[in-house]
C-alpha cells in the first residue's frame, strides 16, 4: 500500500492541532481514523511525518550468505538395466 503524501499528513496534523477532532479530520481528508491517529502519534514522538521505508527496501535479516548445499548421501541407486521405454530390454547391462 502506498503512503499518503507528506503534505496531506501535515495538513491532517495541523487540523487536529488547531482543535479539530480526529474523526472530523478523518472525514475531511477522506482517510481512516487510524491514519489520523498514526500520523499524530508519529508527529508527537518523532517530530517528523516522513513515511517509513517500504518493507522491500529494508535490509535482509539473518545470515548474509547461505550455506552450500550438501551432497546427496547416500547417492541414488543406479539402474543396472536399460530402459524398456527406449527400446532396450529388461536384462541387466554388462
Describe the biggest sheet? none
Rg on CA atoms, Å: 32 Å
Secondary structure category: mainly alpha
Tally of individual helices: 3
How is the topology of this model organized?
Blueprint lengths: L5 H12 L4 H8 L3 H14 L48
Helix pairs in contact: 1-2, 1-3, 2-3
Describe the structure.
This protein has 94 residues and is mainly α. It has a domain at 6-49. The chain is built from three helices and no strands. It has helices at 6-17, 22-29, 33-46. α1 packs antiparallel against α2 (22-29) and α2 packs across α3. It is elongated. The model has no long low-confidence stretch (mean pLDDT 78).
A few lines on this structure:
The chain is mostly helical.
Attribute tags:
single chain, 94 residues, mainly alpha, 36% helix, elongated
